[in-house]
Write a sequence for this structure.
């Protein structure tokens, strides 16, 4: 071959063999936990109008400023590969009139997302998230239930060294007074701040808590804390979320410096980290977003949810707990003792008939000798083998070794009866 090999793009990966099996096991577990709690599956398109994320996630966030894969469709409209799932779920809630259903509407997803980030272990440009969103209720029980479900998922997948950090950002109204206080503090220490934080004093001063720039960190150590300036209602809401988490025996730490990388949060915010992950320690996080649906053109609707990275759960989780059930055993293996077209077609037809009748059936697709095919059937642990020939078909019971001629169109019936007799 003269041309150089083509590789998967930077920050992306193929899912093969055991990894595919672990993902299936994780999906089965997530589904059972979430659907058991009344969440329904939703899947939204892989790309959306760019404006959905600009408005939903926020113009001042890293995601919108520099991490989106954006392109023009044929008609000159700007589209973006989804960097996250909350804005699309809220868009779907409005588009399908879900506010008319009994509230809260609880939805979950397991999909791939795209961010143009610096790729490293645990951080990819296409990654997968399992997420859960509850729309239409501001009851603190929604917050506590949502957080508890993620705690359960992480526990059941064997993620170790987990810490849950919890805070409240208050409602947008009660936050504006605090914002001014924080902006005044930042301006007073502007010279010590990083370029990035300085440029965001107006738009997004809270993100300064997230900076790892040493000068900024010193300034933030003495900054006023939002948790100490919550309105009475917001403080009471947070108090109840905490009491309910205590009742559910979920352990958490209050962290008044916790801010999230997306702009839509109000009131409760949280993040799960696992020390076993190293630098990219965030395994899942979320919070309340009471203004988002309205910002996207829908009716005023509270919302609460989270997303957790599938790759990070698998990296931090217990491999043995991620082992999926073995594939179903092969009930019928069809071997052919002649490679002529008619015999191959008869064998192929028989596999198809067996599958339609509900049996697990396979045949050799590699043109092997009869001996090779029987070896394959043995390796698969096939229960019965039908050997289709020019003259006749033979059915062999692999457990007893019994073998007898059977009409090809009677094989499926014989296998079903044979299984029944066991
Ligand atoms: P997020 O914190 O940006 O939140 O992402 C949630 C999780 O996705 C992270 O904790 C991490 O495990 C995983 N993740 C994020 N970026 C990457 C990446 N580049 N590579 C691998 N894993 C990654 C959200 O996306 C919000 N939509 C969560 C939410 C739902 N809030 C309310 N509802």
């Amino acid at each position: 071959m003269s041309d150089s090999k083509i590789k998967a793009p930077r920050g992306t990966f193929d899912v093969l063999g055991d990894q595919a099996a672990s993902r299936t096991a994780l999906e089965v577990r997530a589904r059972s936990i979430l659907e058991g709690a009344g969440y329904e599956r939703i899947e939204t398109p892989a790309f959306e109008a760019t404006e959905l994320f600009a408005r939903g996630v926020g113009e001042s966030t890293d995601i919108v400023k520099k991490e989106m894969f954006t392109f023009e469709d044929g008609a000159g409209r700007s589209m973006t590969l989804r960097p996250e799932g909350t804005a699309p779920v809220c868009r779907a809630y409005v588009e399908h009139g879900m506010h008319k259903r009994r509230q809260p509407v609880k939805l979950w997803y397991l999909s791939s997302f795209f961010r143009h980030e610096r790729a490293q272990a645990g951080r990819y440009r296409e990654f997968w998230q399992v997420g859960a969103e509850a729309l239409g209720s501001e009851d603190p029980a929604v917050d506590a239930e949502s957080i508890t479900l993620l705690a359960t998922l992480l526990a059941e997948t064997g993620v170790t060294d987990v810490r849950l950090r919890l805070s409240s950002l208050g409602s947008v109204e009660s936050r504006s007074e605090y914002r001014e206080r924080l902006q005044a503090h930042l301006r007073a220490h502007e010279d010590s701040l990083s370029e990035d934080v300085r440029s965001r004093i107006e738009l997004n001063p809270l993100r300064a808590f997230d900076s790892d720039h040493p000068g900024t960190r010193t300034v933030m150590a003495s900054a006023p804390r939002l948790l100490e300036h919550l309105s009475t209602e917001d403080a009471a809401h947070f108090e109840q979320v905490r009491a309910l988490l205590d009742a559910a025996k979920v352990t958490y730490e209050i962290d008044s410096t916790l801010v999230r990388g997306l702009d839509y949060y109000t009131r409760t915010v949280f993040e799960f980290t696992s020390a076993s992950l190293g630098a990219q320690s965030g395994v899942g996080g979320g919070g309340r977003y009471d203004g988002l649906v309205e910002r996207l053109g829908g009716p005023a609707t509270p919302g609460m949810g989270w997303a957790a990275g599938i790759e990070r759960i698998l990296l931090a989780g217990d491999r043995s707990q991620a082992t999926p059930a073995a594939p179903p055993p092969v009930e019928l293996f069809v071997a052919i003792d002649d490679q002529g077209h008619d015999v191959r077609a008869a064998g192929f037809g028989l596999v198809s008939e067996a599958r339609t009748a509900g049996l697990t059936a396979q045949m050799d697709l590699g043109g092997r000798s009869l001996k090779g095919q029987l070896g394959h059937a043995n390796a698969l642990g096939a229960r019965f083998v039908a050997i289709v020939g020019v003259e006749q078909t033979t059915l062999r019971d692999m457990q007893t070794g019994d073998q007898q001629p059977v009409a090809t169109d009677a094989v499926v019936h014989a296998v079903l009866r044979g299984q029944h007799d066991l």
